[in-house]
Amino acid sequence: MKSFSVLVAAATLVAKVSAHYTWPQLIVGGVNTSTWQYVRETNNWQDLNPLTDVTSTDVRCYSSLESGTASTVTVAAGSTVGFTVVGNPSNLYHDGVLNVYMAKAPAGTDVASWDGSGDVWFKVYQIPAIADGITITFPSTGLTEATFPIPAALPSGQYLIRIEHIALHVASSFGGAQFYIACAQVQVTNGGTGTPGPLVAFPGAYTGNEPGILINIYYPIPTSYVQPGPPVWPASGSGSPAPPVSSTTVSSTKASSTVAPPTTTTASTTTFTTKTTTSAPASGTGAAEFAQCGGQGWAGATAWHLPQLSLAPFTCHVVNGMIVDF
Ligand SMILES: *[C@@H]1O[C@H](CO)[C@@H](O)[C@H](O)[C@H]1NC(C)=O
Ligand SMILES: [Cu+2]
């Protein structure tokens, strides 16, 4: 089979390494804060591996360290915050979709020691896939950071912000979707009088059987896409801005550094007041199915998919001569 010879040829020319990504820094006031300063250190801070069991408690924040590792930062309702992507390479290089949820710590509970349990999570932002009946595209692909507004109507108080990228490149079998999750701790000031909802629990919000999670994104090409989770709150306004436009070049930047170990932080609160703007994604989707995707001297598109093979689907990413996530 021709596709197999392409696969074998590419594999013999390059080394293989498994690598994914995580979300170690909160962006506040346009500043990348320190690694794991306001974001709870995730269980994949070193190996960058995804979570795949949506029934696990780890689907909440992907962190076994629910207190003592992160500080809480003050942010104004209506201001823009975000998370940076660190990985190998450092962008959301898997085709997938993005969601951001928030949850308010119960009165009298310090968010830094709150586990986020219960029906407490509401969605404030999303970047779905776009299926137009002919093609399906993933505007979050290639982002090096994701920024979004804290809803102006959100009441003041302490919250967790939970970001997730759901990578769908091998999501055609149950448990194949890859969840890249992290939670930050914030104190929201200058809040509004809204009532966020609908509220969901993690675990609980997903079964893994949702049409937007258990999905073959390659063949047949989906003619529609249903974003996992509840609708964005508030329903109208700034909570769901248009997704960023994706370009067509896959990043070839080598990410040689691993995530730095967490620094010990004391419980401090820092205030940022300036706003930042959403940046454009750095890369996008790659080559057509069965096309060459890598090897020595290859300068073309560096991702392909082989959905029809029994072993499939594959995704090929070549980063400085290495196939990642083969
Ligand atoms: C903040 O992080 C993003 C994503 O990694 C990066 O593109 C940007 O250059 C960083 N900004 C600064 C000032 O370091
Ligand atoms: Cu990956």
Automatic annotation (TrEMBL):
One of its GO terms (biological process) is cellulose catabolic process. Residues 234-285 are annotated as: Disordered. GO terms for cellular component: extracellular region. One of its GO terms (molecular function) is metal ion binding. It is found in: Secreted. Its cofactor is Cu(2+). Keywords: Carbohydrate metabolism, Cellulose degradation, Copper, Disulfide bond, Hydrolase, Metal-binding, Monooxygenase, Oxidoreductase, Polysaccharide degradation, Secreted, Signal. It catalyses: [(1->4)-beta-D-glucosyl]n+m + reduced acceptor + O2 = 4-dehydro-beta-D-glucosyl-[(1->4)-beta-D-glucosyl]n-1 + [(1->4)-beta-D-glucosyl]m + acceptor + H2O. Its EC number is 1.14.99.56. Residues 1-19 form the signal peptide. It holds the Pfam family AA9. InterPro entries: AA9, AA9_LPMO. Belongs to the polysaccharide monooxygenase AA9 family. This is lytic cellulose monooxygenase (C4-dehydrogenating). It comes from Mycena rosella.
